[in-house]
Amino acid sequence: RAVDLAELCEASVDLLDIRAKQAGVHLAFLNSGSPPVVVFGDPEELARVIDNMVDNAVKYTPEDGSVTVSMAMTVDEVTVDVADTGIGISVADQGHVFSAFHRSTNPNALSVPGTGLGLPIAQRIAESHGGTLTLESELGRGSTFRFTLPLRSSRDEG
Ligand code: ATP
Ligand code: MG
């Protein structure tokens, strides 16, 4: 099915806006008002990936920090970046965050409830759509999660 990724980003930011405000975290979607960015896949699964990334970013960012969602396109793929100025993830933990039930050893992260299933599920969904979910992070400085999906021309739809 054709899914508008821009709309999913917008919806995700809207969904988590109240929680971000309560936490004193500035949340914004840089491409707000973007024309549709059409990918093919399961709308609920794709929404789940973005919701998870934004949920984590808000959860693991202290007061006065910011979470920025942005979208970029090349000829053949689209990326959704969720960048935060939060607690960050140590290099040791970075190898494990996509494993089921893993939660970082960072005490700042452990004070926030979670089951450690969000990212493994999100990564599995990304890969089942021919895409990837990756991360760059520096402990104490913040994290950027990148969701990449292939763009297909209408010729390939079949
Ligand atoms: P849930 O199943 O409710 O999503 P969770 O958020 O703990 O629980 P994941 O989303 O899989 O689980 O994330 C795994 C771990 O990675 C988290 O427990 C946290 O330690 C770390 N993590 C994920 N996103 C971030 C982030 N944006 N900043 C810092 N740490 C993060
Ligand atoms: Mg999570």
Automatic annotation (TrEMBL):
Superkingdom, natural source: Bacteria
Subcellular location: Cell membrane
Domain Histidine kinase: 1-153
Name this polypeptide is given: histidine kinase
Species whose genome carries this gene: Nocardioides hwasunensis
Lineage of source species: Bacteria, Bacillati, Actinomycetota, Actinomycetes, Propionibacteriales
